[in-house]
């Protein structure tokens, strides 16, 4: 199976490096091209990928064709390669935020092309990501399973209605930055009380990672897990109440609201 990438930005690189880490696809079977030769040729050489001379060359050879350009470039790029897509029949895998399946079909000029829309997060680079999936009506179940199997090597996958993709962007796509912010804030509190920043970051990050793993493995809701940690009259409930009084829940929800609103623009 040959995997093509048109566009080699940060998210494309995260997916490529996750695929390589899983060791199920030879590096030479990953084909790339972008508008910046110095970027993609050097990157291809670094990882042993196949650098293609143009987008049509990628589309001609790929079984799975990842669109990883800026959303505003979708029409221009697809207009250039639509004849190749129609004749070569790759499965088009769009990771373009805010560009619907219907718009992708319109850019290509037909509904008779297999399209999978995905939304990964950056943690796919370390095979700990989560990727949302939705296909158009032409996507075969066999090709959906093929793509889902590839993406499952990068972490978890979840099938969502297209209307829920903006919510996914906030909860998974943008949220790593929110979590980094939380870890950094916890670490700064540790520094306030005498820890080095490195030690405080390590403690906070490990606590977040372990707590997340516990949520995924437990049958209990996060709220119930919180109750398990809180002793009556203890330190944890005092901290939680102080965070709530400072507007923690409201700040998180407003951050999600703002992210969703921006994505829907």
Automatic annotation (TrEMBL):
Residues 162-265 form the Pyrroline-5-carboxylate reductase dimerisation domain. Its EC number is 1.5.1.2. This is Pyrroline-5-carboxylate reductase. HAMAP family: P5C_reductase (MF_01925). It is found in: Cytoplasm. Belongs to the pyrroline-5-carboxylate reductase family. It is an enzyme of class 1 (oxidoreductase). It catalyses: L-proline + NADP(+) = (S)-1-pyrroline-5-carboxylate + NADPH + 2 H(+); L-proline + NAD(+) = (S)-1-pyrroline-5-carboxylate + NADH + 2 H(+). The gene is proC. InterPro entries: 6-PGluconate_DH-like_C_sf (IPR008927), NAD(P)-bd_dom_sf (IPR036291), P5C_Rdtase_cat_N (IPR028939), P5CR-like_CS (IPR053790), P5CR_dimer (IPR029036), Pyrroline-COOH_reductase (IPR000304). Keywords: Amino-acid biosynthesis, Cytoplasm, NADP, Oxidoreductase, Proline biosynthesis. Pathway: Amino-acid biosynthesis; L-proline biosynthesis; L-proline from L-glutamate 5-semialdehyde: step 1/1. Residues 2-97 form the Pyrroline-5-carboxylate reductase catalytic N-terminal domain. Catalyzes the reduction of 1-pyrroline-5-carboxylate (PCA) to L-proline.
């Amino acid at each position: 199976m040959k995997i093509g990438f048109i566009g080699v930005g940060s998210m494309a690189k995260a997916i490529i490096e996750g695929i390589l880490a899983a060791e199920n696809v030879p590096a030479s079977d990953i084909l790339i091209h972008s508008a910046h030769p110095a970027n993609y040729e050097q990157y291809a050489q670094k990882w042993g990928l196949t650098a293609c001379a143009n987008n049509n060359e990628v589309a001609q050879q790929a079984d799975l064709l990842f669109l990883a350009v800026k959303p505003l470039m979708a029409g221009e790029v697809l207009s250039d390669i639509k004849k190749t897509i129609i004749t070569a029949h790759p499965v088009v895998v769009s990771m373009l935020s805010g560009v619907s399946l219907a718009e992708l079909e319109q850019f290509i000029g037909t509904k008779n092309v297999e399209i999978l829309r995905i939304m990964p997060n950056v943690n796919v680079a370390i095979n700990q990501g989560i990727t949302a999936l939705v296909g158009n009506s032409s996507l075969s179940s066999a090709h959906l399973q093929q793509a889902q199997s590839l993406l499952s090597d990068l972490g978890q996958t979840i099938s969502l209605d297209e209307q829920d993709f903006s919510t996914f962007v906030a909860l998974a796509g943008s949220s790593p930055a929110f979590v980094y912010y939380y870890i950094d804030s916890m670490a700064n509190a540790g520094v306030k009380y005498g820890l080095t920043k490195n030690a405080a970051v390590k403690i906070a990050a490990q606590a977040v990672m372990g707590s997340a793993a516990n949520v995924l493995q437990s049958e209990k809701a996060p709220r119930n897990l919180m109750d398990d940690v809180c002793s009556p009259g203890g330190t944890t409930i005092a901290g939680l109440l102080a965070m709530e009084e400072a507007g923690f829940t409201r700040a998180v929800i407003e951050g999600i609201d703002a992210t969703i609103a921006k994505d829907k623009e």
